Amino acid sequence: METLAERLQSDDVAERMGAAKEIRRLTRVSSDHRRALSCAVGPLVQLLSCASSREDEEEEALAVMLALLNLAVKDEKNKVAIVEAGSLYPVTHYLKSTNLNLQEYATALLLTLSASSHNKPAITASNPIPLLFEILKTGSKQARTDSLMSLYNLSTLPENLLSLVSLHPIPPLLTLIRSCRRKSSKIAEKSCALLESLVTFDQGRIALIEETGGVLTVVEVIEEGSLLAKEHAVGTLLTMCESNRDKYREVILSEGAIPGLLELTVHGMPKSRMKARKLLELLRNSTYDRPRLEAGTIDNIVSDVVLQMDGQDCADKARRMVAEMVRVSMERSLRHLKQRAFYV
Asked: How many whole angstroms separate alpha carbon 33 and alpha carbon 22?
């Protein structure tokens, strides 16, 4: 292992590349090799820094980035060591590369490094958000996916959300969601997670309703997405409605959100069910004078909302969903009674 690290410092380009490729091979699937070859992190980062200053060293840069990528996968210590060794400057440099392979591998490496909470402040300081956002719009398919995941990782720091919202990210995120054949894909999940975070800002909320079909796209995720995507999608609409009910209530209702929300109150994850119920409360017409306990029941919430819905088909669908909710509730109660009887 030490010999491989020494070969990385050879004056011979072929020798250095051979060592990098061997490190990549050894660390592809072996966690033991990743640990044993942690000594190669420093020489590899130094090579990457040198290669980034010479335009004719693209092949070597690719080999080095792939070796670093494999060293970082599933190894927290190597992730931290790679950043501390000074990798962020050359990686950021390659995010701007016109060579799509270099850009793609640099994005993949940054994604892996940004999975470490320890690395996020240092990565933020290197200011990759505008570059990642540009890749999100114009990069290769894999680079767009990795840039999205990187932005999601970095979005846990408030300053990064501020940077991102200033770049007008809502239209590209909606385009990504629409491009997904399956609204249950990881891309849809992460895009909706970012949307939910971005609509905490007034700029994000305004951009979503100003984008043609923006709210409708979120509603479609509520209906067709994975359980996690649905949770983020309903969270997006709830955040908007909680920020200004009068401003966003009609927009959400007009895009036919009710059937999907009703389904979530039955089949969603616990957080999704809670968010859907809260949103239904906000969407209802609150002028009815009912006792508080009665007004809070889901059937009364729904009946209030259904009365306001345009189009018989939509209202009928909502009523069918109410019937389904009652059926599922009865089935759950029956199973509970059977379980109790079994254990008595």
From this structure: 11
Q: Which residues contact 116 (CB under 8 A, 6 or more apart)?
A: 76, 79, 80, 83
The candidate with the shortest Cα–Cα distance to 280, out of 254, 255, 262, 263, is: 262
Instruction: Decide if 240 contacts 211 (C-beta within 8 A).
Output: no
Q: Are 97 and 137 in contact (CB under 8 A)?
A: no
Distance CA 294, CA 291 (A): 5
Residue 122: how many CA atoms within 13 Å on its side-chain side? 20
CA nearest neighbour of 82 among 118, 51, 56 = 118
CA atoms within 13 A on the CB side of 13: 10
Which residues, 6+ apart, have CB-to-CB distance to 262 below 8 Å? 276, 280, 302, 318, 321, 322, 324, 325
When computed from its CA atoms, the radius of gyration of the chain, rounded to whole angstroms, is 25
- Tell me, yes or no, if the pTM score tops 0.90: no
Could you tell me the CA-to-CA distances from 189 to 41, 166, 193, 201 in Å, in that order? 33, 22, 6, 20
Q: SS3 string of 137-193?
A: HHCCHHHHHHHHHHHHHHCCCHHHHHHHHCCCCHHHHHHHHHHCCCCCCHHHHHHHH
Per-residue pLDDT of the chain (344 residues; tens, 9 = 90+): 778 888 998 989 889 999 999 999 999 989 999 999 999 999 999 999 988 766 557 889 999 999 999 999 999 999 999 999 999 999 999 999 999 999 999 999 999 999 999 999 999 999 999 999 999 999 999 999 999 999 999 999 999 999 999 999 999 999 999 988 787 789 999 999 999 999 999 999 999 999 999 999 999 999 999 999 999 999 999 999 999 999 999 999 999 898 899 889 888 899 999 999 999 999 886 433 333 334 445 555 555 555 555 555 555 655 565 555 545 545 544 554 554 454 44
